[in-house]
Amino acid sequence: MTPVESTGGSRDRSFTAHSSPDDVTEHLRRVGYAIVEGLATDDRMDRLQAEAAPYVASSATGRDHYDGRFTRRTGALVARCPTARELIMQPLVVDVIGRFLSHATTFQLHLTQIISIEPGETRQKLHRDQMAFDYFDFPPDYHVQCNTMWALTDFTVENGATHIKPGTSAMSDADAEAVAEIRAEMPRGSVLFYDGKVLHGGGANRSRPGAADAVRRGVNITYSVGWVRQEENQFLACPPEIARTLDDDLLRMMGYRQGAFALGYVGDQQDPLAVLRGTDDKVRVVGDFADSNPSFQTFVQDLSTEQ
Ligand SMILES: O=C(O)CCC(=O)C(=O)O
Q1: How far, in Å, from the CA of 173 to the mean position of ligand 1?
Q2: CA geometry: angle 178, 198, 162, nearest 5 deg
Q3: With a 6 A CB cut-off, is 218 part of the ligand 1 pocket?
Q4: How far apart are the CA of 201 and the centre of ligand 1, in A?
Q5: Domain 15-234 listed as CATH 3.30.420.40
Q6: Which helix (H) or strand (E) holds 95?
Q7: Predicted confidence (pLDDT) per residue in 118-137, tens digit
Q8: CB of 217 shorter than 6 A to ligand 1
Q9: Ligand 1 pocket, 201 CB below 6 A?
């Protein structure tokens, strides 16, 4: 197979904050990633950096070469960093992810993690993020997750910009060997979208310690369909006393909702958000899913014939 892009070459195009979500999603579907530049202001990134700084400083480096011996991973961003909540719910991001995962009844927040790659780090093994689901062999056209990586610093070849093999989402590992990589170089405030199937990995950091942007910091915020277990446990990472101060849309995104028919209820079929708020609303019944899912429509028709 001929490499689709030259090794270490740059990405074919990028989008802006004014690009249409349709165009971004189309590119993401076609090559497995898309970059939108300038989606967060410096002010927003400054705030996030300041909020995260004490937690990043106390995060340990990784315990193996996959996590990265010179990489710090800092999670629980909903609880720790109010500005991360703005990134999670950024309208263009939610729109693109919603389109990309529209085959499922709902989608949800999967994890939040600042990935700080420090000088001396070696490159991460290329992987597909959906391996987290116990290596379940999802069909090539079934996307179980979609990810974002916000650039909290500039992403450069030198400081560890993410490696991506474009177009490998539906390819076997063997076929993907011939595909050349690109690097997700992007200025601070940009966001990289990538699906759960595309081969990618963090880059080596060859920066001079102490140089500007010597540490590459990315804010990894990922989303999954609503019927799978979340990678980061949102109900414990964000304690109820903080969760109660958040708005309903963010809470639903964190998983305080029915993920699909029958998933996520509390006690006597109560809605999780209602339980958090101290009210008694019930989750929806099977017939309520008929409009959004033809299989439930059929199921409910059979149900009424039997009665
Ligand atoms: O930091 C990056 O650029 C990618 C990290 C990644 O893919 C991972 O840790 O799973």
Answers
A1: 18
A2: 90
A3: yes
A4: 5
A5: no
A6: helix 91-100
A7: 999 999 999 999 999 999 99
A8: no
A9: yes
